Amino acid sequence: MTRYLALRLLSVVPTLFGISVLVFGITYLIPGDPALIMAGSEATPEAVAGLRRQWGLDEPAYVRYAAWLGNLTRGNFGDSYFSRQTVLQLVGNALPITLELAILSLLVAIVIAVPTGIVSAVKAGSWFDVGAAALGFVGLSIPGFWLGIMLIYVFAVYLQLLPAGGFTPLSAGLIPNLQSMLLPSIALGTFASTQLMRYLRASLLDVLHADHIRTARAKGLGEQAVLIRHALRNALIPFMTVLGVQMGYLLGGTVITESVFALPGIGRLVLTAILNRDYQVATGIILLIATAFVLINLLVDLLYPVLDPRVRLGGSTSWQ
At 314, is the pLDDT very low, low, confident or very high (cuts 50, 70, 90)? Predict the structure, then answer.
């Protein structure tokens, strides 16, 4: 396992390097001048030019990228053009909110997807299976921002049961915190649940028709024991892969949800940075999200042998 882990970690380096080039190139091509935004519309050309020199915005793209990459190797993601805070400080303030939203959304997705996927697979072709598939397609087609707005209208405006937006920190109480996060978690988790449900159903159907399942039934095991002890455990391996990918998507896909519900998280922070042409903040956050996405997928790979001891990382037959 040690050799496999070392090789996977080494493969992360060129991946992140390629991502850094792509992220920097995209943000560099965004139209607009941060110096002009910082100086204001009434600033003189000399003042704007001075800000460009101060922040190195007058340098060629490759020079700016080399300086940015050199700072990254020292753990310096740069400073915001506007708040004068470091990118890591801004991320540290916003990250707990986004992590809470992503984790709660994943829990919502699992609560919806796992029982629905299991029942759909066990009762394949039934009215429940057909209805779950239809609702899944509807869930995939509904835009996240529209679902968020509808949830606000029903539960905040009409029923007045939950807040329409804003964030209540955990220090103010667990119940108020969960109330402020419930609607955005449902809005974000519903879309993820449809994909998780489809993958779990398909994986479980394949396992239920396998030879070892027929053998277990022939030995007299009950359906519940066959499903839990034999079928579900094997079906969880591809499901865990999708689950890890979905967690990465949830971390990076909070931009619209946090904007709709006015949550001061990473998604809203990066959106504000892009609108203000705050390149240091935008590139730093996107690179951090990409790094988290890569590491989550690596962690999922390492969990395979825990779910199924027959799996050996790197094609080996035993742990090294």
Answer: low
Give the residue from 121, 147, 148 showing the smallest Cα distance to 132: 121
Continuous segment of H or E residues that includes residue 200: helix 174-208
Mean pLDDT score, 122-139 = 85
Those residues whose C-beta lies under 8 Å from the C-beta of residue 98, and which sit 6 or more positions away, are 251, 254, 258, 265, 266, 267
Cα-Cα end-to-end distance for the chain: 5
* Four-way CATH pick for 87-315: 1.10.3720.10, 3.40.140.10, 3.40.50.1970, 3.20.20.70: 1.10.3720.10
pLDDT value at residue 307: 60
C-alpha 118/C-alpha 264 separation (Å) is 36
- Structure confidence at residue 319 as a pLDDT band (50, 70, 90): very low
pLDDT of residue 318: 38
270/278 Cα distance (integer angstroms)? 9
Buried b (16+ CB within 10 A) or exposed e, 243-279: bbbbbbbbbbbbbbbbbbbebebbbbbbbbbbebbbb
The owner of tokens 């329409």 is 164
pLDDT, tens digit (0-9, with 9 covering 90-100), for 211-242: 777 777 777 777 777 777 777 777 777 777 77
Structure tokens at 304: 């395979």
Structure tokens at 261: 């519900």
Q: Where in the chain is the domain with CATH 1.10.3720.10?
A: 87-315
**Rounded Cα distance, 11 and 40, in Å:** 44
Cβ proximity of 75 and 66 under 8 Å: no
